[in-house]
Amino acid sequence: MYVLHGVHDWGSQVIHMVLAELGVPFRFNALDFQAGDFDAPSFRALNPFGRVPVLETPDGPIFETAAILLYLSEHHDGLAPRSDAPDRAQFLIWFIFVTNGLHPAAMLLLHPERPAGEAPKRALAEATHELVRSQLAALEGVARGTPWWLSPDRPSALSLYIIMLLRWIKAFPAYAEHSIASADFPALHAMAKGLEARPAIRAVLTAEGISGPAFSDPPCDTLAD
Questions:
Q1: Which CATH class is domain 88-198?
Q2: What is 2-75's CATH topology?
Q3: Are 143 and 186 in contact (CB under 8 A)?
Q4: Which of 7, 82, 126, 216 is the most buried (most CB within 10 A)?
């Protein structure tokens, strides 16, 4: 059985959704950051950097979101094109784009103070807001081409990753005016709306204490200045 170590509504959410969609046995071990669970020796033995997600597998613990998603896609059918599929290269290009581009940019939109402190954070948030919008526009162009791995009807490791990030950038930016609605990107919005209606995804959201249109139109939790 897989064991997923994570925090509700954090980056472990995409792994939680993938495991639920696969229908494989797993256990979610909810950690408490404030209580110091990330620094517990037992957790540091799984991930020396003390971050989630971590997935315990028959091959040992795996950390880093992309590594876990690729591992699961290699061990279970349906999450990504097979290695000999004609669309495998395009899938990998956009998977790495999300991993190396959209994900860190989304984190910067949420936490612009992290690179250099409080003083420059608004300017950095402004620049990051424009960057994220351009990245989403690029993904929108791909989604309009209707590859199955960016479909409203069939989840993939990539589409589930993206909708988690769509939630973050709409609900949790550092500044409310930087909240980005997926409705500005119709193909991505349709993907989020379709996937969040799936029974396995609804079950994950319920387990994580989340209701409503969690990915297609979550409320912005950030207070306006």
A1: mainly alpha
A2: Glutaredoxin (3.40.30)
A3: no
A4: 216
